[in-house]
Amino acid sequence: MFSFEVGSLLNIGLVFVVGLVVAIMMIWVERRFLGFWSDRLGPNRVGPFGLFQVIADAVKMLTKEDWIPPFADKFTFVLAPMVLPIVMLLSLGVMPFAPGVGIMDLNIGLLFVFAMAGLASYSTMLGGLASNNKFSLLGALRGAGQMISYEVFMGISILGIVILSDSFSLREIVEAQEDGWFVIPQFFGFIVFMVAAMAESHRWPFDLPEGESEIISGYNTEYSGMKFGLFMIGEYIGMVVMSALIPVLFFGGWHAPFGLEFGNEIISGLFWMGAKTSFFLLFFVLVRAALVRPRYDQLMNYGWLVMLPLALLNLLVTGAVVLYQAG
Amino acid sequence: MFKAIGKQIKIIWTQIVTLWLVFLHLFKKADTVEYPDVKPYMFPRWRGRIILTRDPDGEERCVACNLCAVACPVDCISLQKTEDEEGRWYPEFFRINFSRCIMCGFCEEACPTHAIQLTPDFEMAEYVRQDMVWEKEHMLIQGTGKYHDYNFYKVAGKAIGGKGKGEAQNELPPVDRRGLLP
After folding, report:
1. How would you write the pLDDT of chain A (327 residues) with one tens digit per residue?
2. What's the first-to-final CA gap in chain A, in angstroms?
3. Given strand B77-83, what is the order of strands in its sheet?
4. Nearest in space to A295 (alpha carbons), one of A234, A220, A208, A202
5. Which residues are CB-neighbours of B48 under 8 A, at least 6 positions away?
6. Residue A41: its chain B contacts at CB < 8 A?
7. C-alpha A24, offset from chain centre
8. Which residues are B89's β-sheet partners?
9. Are A22 and A30 in contact (CB under 8 A)?
């Protein structure tokens, strides 16, 4: 029960507590690093290095007036922010973190993650629709279009990996990368997936559903207090999920680079998985700090005219090479 | 076809260059001045908190001419003139509503006696809005401010107690018009 095997109580506690704590601490990490990257300091007042800023933020969120606008559809309005963190936490459940660490090993783990990512777009759509506000509706509209179109080639981009590893199970995909990371044979798949992952968690520069300079705050304009907080936490958990998924799919998961394994298999695995996940979390923040938001038609053009052909080409070439090698 | 591919490669390349250049800012010193811990240098001509000064003799400089109140673009100054037994004019009350004041310094420019002056102090936050309304006793300082030697009644023609007509600096005695007759 309290041992490192998949689905044990220890694992469930570990994954959810660490996942949530990392997601919440990302608020501080993101603001701090955004500060550094724009020659500022970021929050450094509350506690050592401003670490308790998160607590201050939480207190602020929880004590804010929880207001439902009278013109909103109340049931959907309350439902929408709950969807996002729940589905994101569920997709954290199939993530393999180290040998024997993980909550469940679905043989369709990859599909499960995509299903959950697809459900997450309901949060945006319902939130914007229920707010009964024109800017929210515009945000939801953008969110729906963006997520549906980027999900298409997000799915196609990782089919190459499924071909190479012969499995939809995330754990088996990681185990198939023992001899070499998939980022090398699947480099274009990696690029497409990276872009799609950013668009899918509607992080900057793909924050068109929010786009505060154009449509105030998009789908969460009418939200305040902890309902907005749930949207935010959901986005950060989504960021953690995507940052964990990229190493799992492309960078060998818990396998150490250059044979730098040490000590116990689980300890080493957790360390390297954590290191890779942190790298991609910081990369997400760097992208937010550096890149600018595209126009909506640019976003759609880029998705359908560049990324989709690239993903299809990648799938085609991978399939051909695998068939050729099989003889 | 190749042109389009080249364009896309260029787009991605510029994004990567942007990422790298922004990443390098991690090793640069932040521009932030950590304000309550590090006080910035305030230049002497900074337009901050408004004071009322006294002349070198220690009397109020303000002669309640109302020019500051007229010059004020947000109408935050109000005052009432009164006169003491020597004939000196001074404000009975002098009130500045700092919740309106925009620190433009027009009052200082308008003041004919250098009485009203702006100082480099800017830390004037209050918890109660009514505390932003300052009266004369809050603003009147004991010193002369930026102009140490200026004494309005010493150079002005107005007669006050102890100084009659024509006794001011650089002032001739009043002309006896009958003496000018041919």
Report:
1. 567 777 778 888 888 888 889 888 888 999 999 999 988 888 888 888 888 888 888 898 889 888 888 888 889 888 888 888 899 888 888 888 888 788 888 888 889 988 888 888 888 888 888 888 888 888 888 888 888 888 888 888 888 888 888 888 888 888 888 888 888 888 888 988 988 888 887 787 888 888 777 888 878 888 888 888 888 888 898 888 889 889 988 888 888 887 777 778 888 888 888 899 999 999 999 998 898 888 888 888 888 888 888 899 999 999 999 999 887
2. 46
3. B77-83, B89-97, B133-134
4. A208
5. B42, B103, B118, B119, B120, B121, B122, B124
6. 30, 32, 34
7. 14
8. B83
9. no
State the pTM of this model: 0.80
Task: Report the 3 state secondary structure along chain B.
Answer: CHHHHHHHHHHHHHHHHHHHHHHHHHHCCCCCCCCCCCCCCCCCCCCCCEEECECCCCCECCCCCCHHHHHCCCCCEEEEEEECCCCCEEEEEEEEECCCCCCCCHHHHHCCCCCEEECCCCCCCCCCHHHHEECHHHHECCCCCCCCCCCHHHHCCCCECCECCCCCCCCCCCCCHHHHCC
Query: Which positions in chain A touch B8 (Cβ < 8 Å)?
Result: 306
- Using an 8 Å CB-CB cutoff, list chain B residues near A35: 30
Q: What is the DSSP string of A198-232?
A: HHHTT-TTS-TTT-HHHHTTGGGTT--HHHHHHHH
Distance CA(A282)–CA(B19), nearest Å, equals 12
| Dist CA A227 CA A82 (whole Å) | 8
- Spatial separation of the C-alpha atoms in residues B64 and B78, rounded to whole Å: 10
Q: Which of B18, B26, B34 sits opposite A36 (nearest CB)?
A: B26
Look at A306 and B34 and tell me if their CB atoms are within 8 Å. no
Chain B: residues touching A (Cβ < 8 Å):
8, 12, 15, 18-19, 21-23, 25-26, 28-32, 34
Q: With b meaning 16 or more CB within 10 Å and e meaning fewer, what string describes A156-165? A: bbbbbbbebb
- The neighbour count for residue A99, using CB atoms within 10 Å, is 21
Distance CA A233, CA A216 (A): 20
**Nearest chain B alpha carbon to A310:** B5
